[in-house]
Amino acid sequence: MASLLEELIRRQAESRQRIEELGEQLADARHRGRFRTRLASGKKPYRKRMATLAVVYDAVPAPRRPHDVVSLSERSGDRSLRNGPAAIDKWIYGSVIDSAEQVIAVMFDQAEARDSVHARTRIVLADGDHHQIQC
Predict the structure, then answer these.
(1) Is the predicted pLDDT of residue 57 greater than 90, yes or no?
(2) Number of Cβ within a 10 Å radius of residue 11
(3) Residue 33 and residue 46: Cα distance in Å, rounded?
(4) C-alpha gyration radius of the chain
(5) Which of 48, 51, 73, 95 has the smallest number of Cβ neighbours within 10 A?
(6) More confident: 117 or 69
(7) Whole-model pTM?
(8) Mean pLDDT of 24-53
(9) Burial profile 85-102: b = 16 or more Cβ within 10 angstroms, e = fewer
(10) Which helix or strand (DSSP H or E) is residue 66 part of?
(11) How far is residue 98's CA from residue 107's CA, in Å, rounded to a whole number?
């Protein structure tokens, strides 16, 4: 039963991806040679470009208390706020041309180059798109 469900989910994802590809191809065919740098109003379906961004940085853990993170209106001001962690040696990469898989691969290559023995804790944050999680 579980394998059948997984197969259905996989096929649905493949169908969605194929529909998006066909929509992009159709939009490219309709607008070939026109509006190469920007889009006219009302002509945005399948033509918006979304950048995929990747950031790798080091941070020293900064222990904080709940009231340092959550701001309550009843805060008395008796306790001073602790600062959160600060990014050190930040590396940023983004592209509207490369696929999400390529950008994520470059990000992991950068992280691997910084810590090839996996001595540090790694945290990966994605916006929840299924294709990003699969990468």
Answers:
(1) yes
(2) 10
(3) 16
(4) 22
(5) 73
(6) 117
(7) 0.54
(8) 68
(9) eeeeeebeeeeeeeebee
(10) helix 66-69
(11) 13
Residue 6 backbone zone (phi > 0: left; psi -120 to 50: alpha; other: beta):
alpha
Are residues 94 and 52 in contact, defined by beta-carbon separation less than 8 angstroms? Answer: yes
Give tens-digit pLDDT for 82-121.
788 889 999 999 998 888 889 989 999 999 999 999 998 8
Could you give the CA distance from residue 48 to residue 93 in angstroms, rounded to a whole number? 20
Is the per-residue pLDDT at 44 higher than 80? no
Question: CA 52, CA 132: separation in Å to the nearest integer?
Answer: 10
